[in-house]
TrEMBL record:
Keyword Membrane: yes
Lineage: Bacteria, Pseudomonadati, Pseudomonadota, Gammaproteobacteria, Pseudomonadales
Domain of life: Bacteria
Residues annotated as transmembrane: 547-566
Protein name per the record: ABC transporter
Sequence ranges assigned to domain ABC-type uncharacterised transport system in this UniProt record: 169-438
């Protein structure tokens, strides 16, 4: 009995000492953190530390995180703690130049009012950041999103950089096409964020004040302008370039400049001028001409999130991008450049001769050619690497300029039609956002530009393939139904036009209108059934995958408990001596 009492007292004393250690001494110990992740996602990059070291005056960061908000999911709660840890790492690395304020705004409080006043998003509870600096306007991140975790370090660094350099970057626009009408919305958005300088088509030299150069359809530019572009790029000016084998917004432009192919090769890339890209999976419906029904257009591609480089700044916040009659990019032979795809076709795509596509009377046979290709093509890419001059003898008697560069930085897009307002009518405009993201990144300070997104996880390739197959099956069965639904809606609107109505109104019982109403209800049901049928294998595989991930853990715990039970039972079983 005494031994049991002494054992109990010993356990009690040990428990009290452990509790005292945690309450009194542990909080006073310095915090030690180890980052065992392969990509070092919990450690600030050297580029971020360089950016913080360049701060000349203190900043205040106000992190608004509504804890335990009813509409906030557990995943968002966990991500909120992750953001807080990263912000604390920024504060520590800044050596007193950042003052972090962590705020839990209560509903209808002054803090909540301030957060709303600065434009933070409260849809799922506040989870945003406001940055201020003496004498400068405030900057904000409306809401941190878990799906953007790979860009978290860049997001915060971007805000800090904007506080340190609030002036707008200068973007030089040099176009071989007229963007006044089709690109008016994009140009307006560009002028809101940048100081846009439109350069003449026959320019002899790019001004040194240009931070980033944006060139559209250089095939249509004179050779003098190409030489100016090349020399500016070799001097280190970042470039965003749009080249297109068949530009719908500049159908009259002729690709007559033979120097362009040599210029691309000098930069380490190539694009066939007479080939355009068609895609069975990402093809979207379009009207070939006035009064014609909508059909599946294999060259007008609706690129979903799966077709993008999800860890690149250019595609930040994008759900979709629409391109039309685009080309395909690749590295030139013997190129030493690094080509990072930003926009990709699906595996059911092919390059087709532009003349053959223009003469086709139906798209069905063209779509069938892509079914077994299995190759993905690059529509837009980030290109970095060495380059040399395509004008080794200079231009028209002028002395030769720069002959090579160790590193050039550019983003090349094999499409110009994504710049047109008519191509992307969705809100938010993914096409415009893609351009703005890219220009902002290219014009950023060097330290910010070198901050690379962290790869958080590897995709499940088999699951992606099954999703692509399901999307293809759904599109194949839904095109005709979508066409019928659109025709039905048009006919219904003609018979039931919008006009000023009274509070109550008589029900139109005409046979034709009732038939249209019936079809308007029936067709969406059939579309939903087709979608459920197409995605059923994917959902079944996802359930099996979740089972394989979830079930083994409790089984393992049960096995361990059973083994412990057997071990204890053997210890307490009295030995039998013969």
């Amino acid at each position: 009995m005494g031994s049991a009492f002494r054992a109990g007292m010993t356990l009690l004393v040990i428990s009290l000492l452990f509790l005292a250690l945690n309450l009194v001494w542990v909080p006073k110990l310095p915090t030690a953190q180890w980052d065992f992740s392969q990509e070092k996602i919990h450690t600030l990059s050297p580029a971020t530390r360089q950016l913080l070291a360049s701060l000349e005056s203190p900043l205040d960061l106000y992190y608004f995180n509504t804890l335990h908000a009813p509409q906030k999911s557990q995943a968002l709660e966990r991500y909120g703690r992750r953001v807080e840890d990263v912000l604390k790492a920024f504060e520590k690395a800044a050596n007193g130049m950042i003052n972090l304020h962590i705020i839990n705004p209560a509903p209808f409080s002054e803090d909540a009012y301030k957060a709303s006043l600065f434009g933070l998003d409260d849809t799922q509870g506040f989870l945003g950041l406001i940055g201020t600096r003496a004498g400068q306007g405030a900057q904000r991140i409306e809401a941190f999103r878990p799906e953007h975790e790979s860009l978290l370090e860049y997001e915060i660094s971007h805000l800090i950089s904007k506080l340190g350099h609030p002036e707008r970057a200068t973007v030089g626009l040099l176009s071989g096409l007229s963007l006044d009408k089709p690109g008016s919305e994009l140009l307006a958005l560009m002028r809101e964020q940048f100081n846009v300088v439109e350069l003449a088509a026959n320019i002899a030299q790019v001004p040194p004040s240009i931070a980033t150069l944006m060139v559209i359809q250089p095939h249509a530019l004179p050779e003098r302008a190409l030489y100016a572009i090349e020399q500016s790029v070799l001097k280190g000016t970042p470039l965003m370039m749009f080249i297109d084998p068949v530009s719908e917004i500049g159908a009259d432009a002729v690709s007559a400049n033979a120097r362009m192919e040599g210029l691309l090769n000098a930069w380490g890339i190539q694009m066939p001028e007479d080939k355009l890209l068609i895609d069975n999976l990402y093809a979207s419906s379009a009207t070939p001409g006035p009064g014609m029904p909508r059909v599946l257009h294999p060259a007008r591609l609706h690129l979903p999130r799966q077709a993008m480089a999800t860890t690149d700044i250019s595609t930040w916040g994008l759900d979709s991008v629409i391109v039309s009659s685009s080309g395909a990019l690749s590295l030139a032979p013997k190129s030493r450049s690094l080509l990072t795809p930003l926009l990709l076709s699906s595996g059911q795509s092919a390059l087709l001769n532009a003349k053959r596509f223009a003469s086709a009377t139906t798209f069905d046979s063209l779509i069938d050619e892509t079914a077994t290709s299995g190759q993905r093509h690059v529509i837009a890419a980030r290109v970095e690497g060495p380059a040399y001059s395509a004008f080794p003898d200079g231009f028209k008697g002028q002395p030769p300029g720069l002959q090579k560069a160790e590193l050039i930085q550019m983003v090349v897009v094999a499409d110009t039609d994504l710049l047109a307002d008519t191509l992307s009518q969705a809100r938010p405009n993914g096409n415009a956002q893609f351009v703005l993201n890219t220009l902002d990144n290219l014009a950023a300070p060097d330290a910010l530009k070198r901050i690379r997104p962290r790869v958080m996880h590897q995709p499940l390739h088999r699951l992606d393939q099954m999703r692509d197959q399901a999307a293809q099956a759904y599109r194949k069965n839904s095109v005709e139904l979508e066409r019928r639904l659109e025709q039905t809606e048009q006919a219904w609107r003609k018979l039931n036009p919008l006009h000023t109505r009274l509070i109550t109104q008589a029900v139109d019982t005409s046979t034709q209108l009732q038939a249209l109403n019936k079809e308007r209800l029936q067709l969406p049901i059939e579309l939903h059934a087709f979608k459920a049928q197409a995605y059923a294998p994917v959902q079944r595989f996802e359930r099996q995958l979740k089972g394989l991930i979830i079930v083994p853990l409790p089984l393992l715990l049960c096995l361990i408990a059973w083994l412990l039970f057997l071990h204890q039972r053997r210890r307490h079983t009295p030995a039998i001596f013969h």
